[in-house]
Design brief:
Family: Belongs to the non-flavoprotein flavin reductase family.
CATH topology: Pnp Oxidase, Chain A
CATH class: Mainly Beta
Radius of gyration: 18 Å
Protein name: Flavin reductase
GO molecular function: FMN binding; riboflavin reductase (NADPH) activity
Keywords: Oxidoreductase
Distance between the termini: 19 Å
Shape: globular
CATH architecture: Roll
Strand content: 35-45%
Number of helices: 3
Pfam family, one: Flavin_Reduct
Order of helices and strands: HEEEEEHEHEEEEEE
Length: about 180
C-alpha cells in the first residue's frame, strides 16, 4: 500500500480545556497511588500520569497539579511509595482520589522502614525518594528515584481510558 502525504486541519484549538481533557482521555494510562506516613498517619493520592523515565539512575515520573495540598505534604516525606494499582483496586483508587474523608479507611497497606506507604494487591510497588520537581504549566513533573521494587506481573493493571476504568483484553499473539 502506498502512503500519501496531505495537509490536515485539526478541529479544535488546544485552548479549549474541556476538549483538551477529552482528547487526553483517548490515551489509556495506568493508575498509581503515592503514599507516605507523615506525623504517624498515612497520606496518599492517585495519579494517572505515571511513566518510566530512566534505568540509570532508576527514575519514574508523575504529573501533579500545583494546587494539590496532598503533594505539598508528600514532597517532604523521606520516602514515597508508588503502588501501580491492579484491576481489582478501582474502588481504592476512587477513595484515594477523594477530596474529603479518610482516604485509607478499610484499605490494606504496608509501610517500609523509611515510611513509604504501599497498597496491598498492587501490580508493582516502588520505594522512592523525591529526585526533582519540574514546573510544567499548571502541573509539576515529579521525578522519583526508585530504591527498591516488588512486582506481581500476574495481576491485571488498573487502566484509565475515556474517563473510566477499563480492563485489558488478552489477545492471541498469532492473531495480532
Amino acid at each position: 500500500m502506498a502512503s500519501t502525504t496531505s495537509l490536515i486541519r485539526l478541529d479544535h484549538p488546544a485552548t479549549d480545556t474541556r476538549l483538551l481533557r477529552d482528547a487526553f482521555s483517548c490515551f489509556p494510562s495506568g493508575v498509581v497511588a503515592l503514599g507516605s506516613v507523615i506525623d504517624g498517619a498515612p497520606v496518599g493520592m492517585v495519579a494517572s500520569t505515571f511513566a518510566c523515565v530512566s534505568l540509570a539512575p532508576p527514575l519514574v515520573s508523575v504529573c501533579i497539579q500545583r494546587v494539590s495540598t496532598t503533594w505539598a505534604k508528600l514532597k517532604h516525606a523521606r520516602r514515597i511509595g508508588v503502588s501501580c494499582l491492579s484491576a481489582a483496586q478501582g474502588e481504592a483508587c476512587r477513595q484515594l482520589a477523594a477530596k474529603t474523608g479518610d482516604r485509607f479507611a478499610g484499605l490494606d497497606w504496608s509501610q517500609t522502614e523509611a515510611g513509604a506507604v504501599l497498597l496491598d494487591g498492587a501490580t508493582a510497588l516502588f520505594d522512592c525518594r523525591l529526585y526533582r520537581e519540574i514546573p510544567a504549566g499548571d502541573h509539576e513533573i515529579i521525578l522519583l528515584e526508585v530504591s527498591a521494587i516488588r512486582m506481581h506481573p500476574e495481576r491485571e493493571p488498573l487502566v484509565f481510558h475515556g474517563s473510566t476504568f477499563r480492563a485489558f483484553e488478552a489477545r492471541d499473539s498469532a492473531a495480532a
